[in-house]
Recover the amino acids of this structure.
C-alpha cells in the first residue's frame, strides 16, 4: 500500500511550494516512494475525520498501513528511517543528520516564521516599525551562524541528508525577503537543494494542484 499524504486543496501559497506538504513530497521523491495525496479544504481540515488524524487540524498528515502521522519533521524522519537515501548508514553520522533535522525545525524555522507572521499579521500595528528590525536581526543571527558552519561545503555534514532537506526547505521561506542575499553560500546551498531532481518533481506535483484548482475555478 502506498502512503497517502494530505495537502491544501487551494494553497494560499499559490503554487510556490511553501506549505509543509512540500518537504514531505520532496522526501518521498528522494527515496523513490510513490504516494497518493488527499486534498483538503480549510473547512475539511477542522472536521472530525481530519482531526482524528491531526490533533491541530493541519496539513500534512501521512497514512500508511494503519500508521497515521502528523508533523512534517516526524513524517520525514519516518520516511528517512525506512528507506535508503536520506540518512547515512554510519550511526554517528545518522545521529548528526537527525540533529540537523531538529535544528531546522526547532532553531531555524521558528525565528523565520515569527518574522514572516509578524510582517503579515502585525504590519499595521503602531509598534511594528520598531519590532521589524528586531525580528530581522534574529534571522540574521541564525543565518550568519548557519553560513559559518556550512562554509564552502555543498551540504551540512557530508552527503545530502534529511537535515539538508529540512534546512533548505526552511531557507526557501526567505526567498522573497532578500535576506539570503547577504549569505552567498546559503543562497547557493538553497539553490543546490532546489536543483535536485527530487525537489523538482515534488515542486511540479504541488504546482499541478494549484494549476488544476485555477482552471476549475475552485
Ligand atoms: N509543525 C507543523 C508541521 O511541520 O507539520 C506545522 C503544520 C502547518 O503549519 N500546517 C499549515 C496548516 O495546516 C500549512 S503549512 N495551516 C492551517 C491551519 O493551521 O489551520 C503553513 C503554511 C501555510 C501557507 C503558506 N503560504 O501561503 O506561503 C506557507 C506555509
Amino acid at each position: 500500500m502506498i502512503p497517502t499524504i494530505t495537502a491544501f486543496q487551494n494553497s494560499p501559497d499559490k503554487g510556490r511550494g511553501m506549505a509543509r506538504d512540500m518537504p514531505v513530497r520532496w522526501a518521498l521523491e528522494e527515496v523513490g516512494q510513490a504516494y497518493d495525496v488527499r486534498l483538503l479544504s480549510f473547512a475539511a481540515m477542522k472536521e472530525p475525520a481530519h482531526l482524528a488524524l491531526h490533533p491541530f487540524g493541519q496539513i500534512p498528515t501521512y497514512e500508511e498501513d494503519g500508521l497515521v502521522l502528523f508533523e512534517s519533521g516526524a513524517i520525514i524522519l519516518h520516511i528517512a528511517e525506512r528507506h535508503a537515501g536520506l540518512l547515512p548508514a554510519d550511526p554517528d553520522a545518522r545521529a548528526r543528520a537527525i540533529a540537523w533535522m531538529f535544528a531546522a525545525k526547532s532553531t531555524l524555522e521558528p525565528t523565520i516564521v515569527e518574522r514572516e507572521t509578524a510582517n503579515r499579521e502585525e504590519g499595521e500595528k503602531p509598534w511594528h516599525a520598531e519590532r521589524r528590525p528586531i525580528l530581522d536581526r534574529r534571522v540574521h543571527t541564525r543565518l550568519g551562524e548557519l553560513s559559518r558552519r556550512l562554509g564552502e561545503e555543498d551540504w551540512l555534514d557530508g552527503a545530502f541528508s534529511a537535515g539538508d532537506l529540512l534546512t533548505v526547505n526552511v531557507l526557501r521561506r526567505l526567498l522573497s525577503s532578500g535576506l539570503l542575499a547577504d549569505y552567498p553560500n546559503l543562497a547557493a546551498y538553497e539553490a543546490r537543494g532546489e536543483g535536485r531532481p527530487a525537489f523538482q518533481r515534488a515542486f511540479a506535483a504541488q504546482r499541478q494542484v494549484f494549476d488544476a484548482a485555477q482552471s476549475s475555478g475552485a
About this structure: The CA atoms of residues 48 and 198 lie 33 Å apart. The mean pLDDT is 97. The chain has nine helices and four strands.
